[in-house]
Specification:
By secondary structure, this protein is α+β, with helices and mostly antiparallel strands. The protein folds into 2 domains: 190 residues, BirA Bifunctional Protein, domain 2 (2-Layer Sandwich); 40 residues, SH3 type barrels (Roll), CATH 2.30.30. The strands form 3 sheets. The chain has a 7-stranded mixed β-sheet with strand order 1-2-5-9-8-7-6, with helices on both faces. A hairpin with a 4-residue loop joins strand 10 and strand 11. Helix 2 packs across helix 5. It is globular and about 50 Å long. The termini are far apart.
Length: 239
């Protein structure tokens, strides 16, 4: 693993994608400041300052795309939750990969595949984690209520130490996850999935589906009991 630290970029994911050929497998791109961070469905990710985390994993596990790569965001959400819990934070996951502390969103995760025609060139897995912020800055984040670890724990957080632990923990189980798939993390994921057996609405790309979340299957997909019958969702966000 190699960590490359940049003073400022628009987006670590965009930078990694644009320069993918220059980076070896398992390179981590870190930015101290990020001016145009992005989340799922083109949502913005607000930069709360240098003592927060903005990184992208450059992953080149093979020359062809494997469906298990789609679950890497869920794998990262579990790795992050376990680390946050070591700090003493109460953590949960909202399908598919939102990480919450005390019901408030503390991290954003975004995976982007890079293709050249039909050839898989690699995957960029980005994550932003709110480690140190003040309440006023957090209040300016629109949408879901946001959390910062320093406020939740009433202590300053070392971004350097957190970066080291997160990247080390990620790669410690990475190869085994690729071999075993979502089943490798399923029990850890389910134990933190507070949405199960609750009524939810899931926003897809072009539509919204509501019903009772019955569980998550062996492929990380959401099983939903809707008014028109049971369905399986592989993309979307619980609102």
């Amino acid at each position: 693993m190699q960590v490359i630290t940049l003073e400022e970029v628009n987006s670590t994911n965009l930078y990694a994608k644009e320069n993918l050929a220059s980076f070896a497998d398992k390179t981590v791109i870190r930015a101290l400041r990020q001016s145009a961070g992005r989340g799922r469905f083109s949502r913005s990710w607000i930069d709360l300052g240098k003592e927060n985390l903005f990184i992208s994993f450059v992953l080149k596990p093979s020359d062809s795309f494997d469906p298990v790569y789609s679950n890497l965001t869920q794998y990262l959400s579990v790795v992050l939750c376990k680390l946050l819990e070591k700090y003493g934070a109460a953590c949960e996951i909202k399908w598919p990969n939102d990480v919450l502390v005390n019901g408030k969103k503390i991290a954003g995760i975004l995976a982007e595949t890079v293709m050249s025609g039909n050839i898989f060139k690699g995957l960029v897995l980005g994550i932003g984690v709110n480690l140190n912020a003040d309440p006023l800055s957090l209040s300016k984040i629109t949408g879901r209520e946001a959390a910062a670890l320093n406020i939740e724990l009433n202590m300053e957080i070392s971004a350097e130490h957190f970066l080291h632990k997160l990247t080390s923990d990620f790669f410690a189980g990475y190869d085994e996850f690729l071999n075993k798939g979502f089943s490798f993390i399923k029990s850890d994921y389910i134990s933190r999935a507070s949405f199960i057996d609750t009524e939810v609405c899931v926003q897809g790309i072009n539509d919204k589906k509501c019903g009772i979340a019955k569980g998550v299957n062996d492929f990380g997909e959401l099983v939903l009991d809707a008014a028109d019958g049971q369905c399986v969702l592989n993309i979307g966000d619980i609102l």
